[in-house]
Amino acid sequence: MLVGRRPQKTWKPPAAGTPPQLCLYNSFARKKELFVPLNPKQVKWYICGPTVYDSSHIGHARAYLSFDILRRVLQDYFGYDIQYIMNITDIDDKIIKRARQLYLLENYTSGKFGELSMTKVIKDTLSALDKFKNKCIDETDPDKKNMLADMCASVNVAVKKLECSLLQSEQQETEKSKNELLHAAKDVLSDWLDSLYKHTVNDLAVFDRLAKKYENEFLCDMASLNVLPPTILTRVSEYIPEIIAYVEKIIDNGYGYVTKDGSLS
């Protein structure tokens, strides 16, 4: 005898829950409001990258890790397609000055400014130190003033050590003391050399090399911290004509003016 199938209850899919909604503080309205992107599922996000004139520090780590967390929340929890655009400032007064100083210091230590005798190193360092001390005196920030004072003290110690080595006529120890002095006085000497020879540095490759070096360092640091790379990476050097046109428009509209030193305010 055949037995019919048992009746089954009607299956109903679970009711769709309300998708998570993102609210942001609107400083114009002074309240939290629903975030509504122009494209329903895509967010275009611009983030300012570093000015690449030196190695990254803990402040960079904090900033980019914080934004990376926010990016991952928007992407992985709220489900947005994030177009994350970062700009690298690879043309800047700080980059130009730092590149020029390092270039001149390298030329100095390699003997391109003349034979680097022990007495010359001491004489040049003391001349550079006199100029640097004025910078220390003029500094008003107490923390920076203490830092500059410590630098001066370290250089003085290194000078005295080299002078003692010369008096004792110990060739090996003298060469070691000379290298220690050049290392201790690198900031003092590079600043002094820049004041004397900055007009001689015109090769753009000098500045480009420094910017690329620290850009690569920064990107490696971010990868080590597991920070997601930007979707698009741009550089100031790639948009110079557009920047000039933009600044000219600001001036034409009366929102900016050129100062005596050529800067825009």
Task: Explain how this protein is built.
This protein has 265 residues and is mainly α. The protein folds into two domains: 38-93 and 207-252, Rossmann fold, CATH 3.40.50; 112-201, Four Helix Bundle (Hemerythrin (Met), subunit A), CATH 1.20.120. Helices cover 55% and strands 12% of the residues. It contains eight helices and five strands; from the N terminus they run E-E-E-H-E-H-H-H-H-H-H-E-H. The chain has a three-stranded parallel beta sheet with strand order 3-4-5. Strands 1-2 form a two-stranded antiparallel ribbon. The longest helix has 27 residues, at 142-168. The protein starts with 22 loop residues before the first strand and ends in a 13-residue tail after the last helix.
What spatial order of strands do you see in the largest sheet? 3-4-5
Q: Which structural class best describes the helix and strand composition?
A: mainly alpha
Q: Quick one: CATH superfamily of the largest domain?
A: HUPs
- How many separate structural domains? 2
What is the percentage of strand-forming residues?
A: 5-15%
Task: Please write the CATH class name of the largest domain.
Answer: Alpha Beta
Total strands: the figure is 5
Molecular shape: elongated
Overall mean pLDDT score? 92
Please estimate the helix content. 40-55%
Q: The biggest beta sheet, please?
A: 3 strands, parallel
